Amino acid sequence: MDATAPPRHVVITGAAGALGRAVASRFAAEGARLALIDRDLQHLQTVFAHPEPDQGGMLLHAADVTSDTAMAPVAAAILDAFGAVDVLVHVAGGFEMGEPTHALSRESWLRMMDLNAWSFVAVTGHFIPAMMFQRSGKVVAVSARGATAGAATMGAYSASKSALQRLVESLSREVRAAGINVNSIAPGILDTPANRNAMPAAEHTHWVSTGAAARAVAFLASEGAQAIHGQHLVLDGLS
């Protein structure tokens, strides 16, 4: 990063999770000012209890990213504090194994669709207008390699991540002329404590590290990705 350039203003949802923390650390190392959003403010404050000294302080906000009503005051507070948002990284989402597709419950369907697809709409709706006004911005969502095909007992999850990719592509088509890049990373299994606990016998070295995923996000948020629009950067690891 150019030492003479002003710091970028970066918003990260799902910031208290394993990937969110890695993404925050990556942008902090670049000197960015961060606005971090998660559902539980107390957990967020615990995770980021000791921010880097050169960040000028982090903005920490609790919000339900599936709720337009909840996101509105949080986004307004961030824009008021920053004046502009240069990068929006939408990490927040969810995963669950579900019922067989023929027995899929509406509750499971709505839960996955809300967390993984609608949340993208609820979050971007409050930051895209500001990016369009400034004629620049980067939006990076966290999709999944599994968005390309269905899998047994993962119908709702796979469909919701596929829906997220279609939303990324659609938004990209709508805003690229305004200087805004919208893309996603699509990792395979991430090497997180939760996944290790769920799959203790798996070969963890074949998974995608959160650091590698954070570097991919940083690339899509960089000037090097200026010509990339509506794409999904697949992170296979060794799997």
UniProtKB/TrEMBL annotation:
<dbReference type="GO" id="GO:0016020">
    <property type="term" value="C:membrane"/>
</dbReference>
<protein>
    <submittedName>
        <fullName>SDR family oxidoreductase</fullName>
    </submittedName>
</protein>
<dbReference type="Pfam" id="PF00106">
    <property type="entry name" value="adh_short"/>
</dbReference>
<dbReference type="InterPro" id="IPR036291">
    <property type="entry name" value="NAD(P)-bd_dom_sf"/>
</dbReference>
<dbReference type="GO" id="GO:0016491">
    <property type="term" value="F:oxidoreductase activity"/>
</dbReference>
<dbReference type="InterPro" id="IPR020904">
    <property type="entry name" value="Sc_DH/Rdtase_CS"/>
</dbReference>
<keyword id="KW-0560">Oxidoreductase</keyword>
<comment type="similarity">
    <text>Belongs to the short-chain dehydrogenases/reductases (SDR) family.</text>
</comment>
<dbReference type="InterPro" id="IPR002347">
    <property type="entry name" value="SDR_fam"/>
</dbReference>
